[in-house]
Write a structure and sequence with these properties.
This protein is 26% helix and 26% strand. The protein contains ten helices and 15 strands. The chain has helices at 45-48, 99-102, 143-161, 180-189, 204-210, 224-230, 244-248, 274-280, 292-305, 319-328; strands at 3-9, 16-22, 30-40, 65-72, 85-88, 126-130, 135-136, 170-174, 193-198, 214-217, 234-239, 254-262, 283-286, 311-315, 334-338. Strands 3, 4, 5, 6, 7, 14 and 15 form a seven-stranded mixed β-sheet that branches. β1 and β2 (16-22) form a beta hairpin. α3 crosses α4 and α3 crosses α9 (292-305). The mean pLDDT is 97.
Length: 340
């Protein structure tokens, strides 16, 4: 039997190591994907550090997978053929029988199958994934660009398109890092008057390059909420920075019936009070990633508007260095493993 390389972590918080494993075979309802590229996401830390329940070591993370269908499991029928270019993201399949699934809300499936958690992820030359997790990659997108779309891209794209904002509305993106730089580009392409919020005056040039119409330095003399109100108040703030205090600072900058869409994960509580929300009818909404169809929509929109993530690519063998760089905040802006 042939073997393939995988990057695994043997113990919680440990380093990545490259090992050889037998090439797996897909079962019914599954496919084998030959991985071309896989993004490194901050959420991989949930599995590497054994933060979420049910993580099994050694663990192979990776939920921003781009590759080609290499083999179909027996009886698998989902319209895909061997050779098709596909992604698999945070949505790595659903159970199809829990209440959210029966209601068609697959991304909040009670038994959501996240690569690297429910099964071995994409830090490998091959991965087995459920057929319902696949999204077709448009011809215009390279694998390294498509991979981050399967988690980072769909998270901000879906967060914006499912928000209450309409073209012409003032929309702010909090943070212009791995998620936020895409959020700014999508907001502009969707026709929103776009505000980028980040720390430091030095990030304004980047925000303008991304297409932002306005920039707010959250460390400046003017409070973020006041700065937003001076622009008329934000219909939506897309919070990509994983900082509860920074999110809280935007609440009073929302317009009446404005919406704070939370996409950045922080374990600290938000500081907004019920009185703040009640008086102006504000909404705070957590936003998970998106289904395979949402990922496909994201990639199609990106191809149409010429939107690509800003990435750094490294070979699979340098995964540990790349992961540490991402965790340190030094990546600009998404680290992607070039597997093939």
């Amino acid at each position: 039997m042939s073997t393939h390389k995988v990057a695994q972590v043997a113990t919680a918080g440990g380093p990545f190591e490259i090992v050889e494993r037998d090439v797996p075979r897909p079962g019914p309802g599954h496919v084998r994907i030959a991985v071309d590229a896989c993004g490194i996401c901050h959420s991989d830390a949930f599995f590497v550090n054994d933060i979420l329940p049910g993580v099994r070591f050694p663990v192979v993370p990776g939920h921003e997978i781009a590759g080609r269908v290499d083999e179909l499991g027996e009886g698998t029928q989902n319209g895909r053929q061997v050779g098709d270019r596909v992604t698999v993201g945070w949505f790595g399949g659903s159970c199809r029988h829990c209440t959210p699934c029966r209601q068609g809300d697959f991304i909040v499936c009670v038994n959501l199958k996240v690569p690297g958690w429910a099964y071995d992820g994409g830090f490998a030359e091959y991965v087995i994934a459920p057929a319902d997790a696949l999204a077709a990659i448009p011809d215009a997108l390279e694998a390294a660009d498509a991979a981050p779309m399967a988690c980072a891209g769909v998270t901000v794209y879906n967060g914006l398109r499912r928000s209450s904002a309409r073209p012409g509305d003032l929309v702010a993106v909090l943070g212009i890092g791995g998620l936020g730089h895409l959020g700014v580009r999508y907001a502009v392409a969707m026709g929103f008057e776009t505000v980028a919020i980040a720390r430091g005056a030095d990030k304004e040039d980047l925000a303008r390059e991304l297409g932002a119409h306005h920039y707010i330095d959250s460390t400046g003399d003017t409070a973020v909420a006041d700065a937003l109100q001076s622009l008329g108040g934000a219909k939506v703030v897309l919070a990509t920075a994983a900082n509860s205090a920074a999110m809280t600072a935007t609440v009073d900058g929302l317009s009446h019936r404005g919406e704070l869409v939370v996409a950045g994960a922080d374990v600290e509580p938000l500081g907004a009070t019920p009185a703040q929300l009640l008086m102006r009818g504000l909404v705070v909404r957590g936003h998970p990633s998106g289904t395979a169809q949402d990922v496909q929509d994201t990639m199609t929109f990106s191809a149409l508007h010429g939107i690509r993530p800003v990435i750094e690519t490294v070979p699979l063998e340098q995964v540990d260095e790349a992961y540490r760089k991402m965790m340190s905040g030094a990546a600009r802006f998404r680290m992607v493993l070039a597997v093939r």
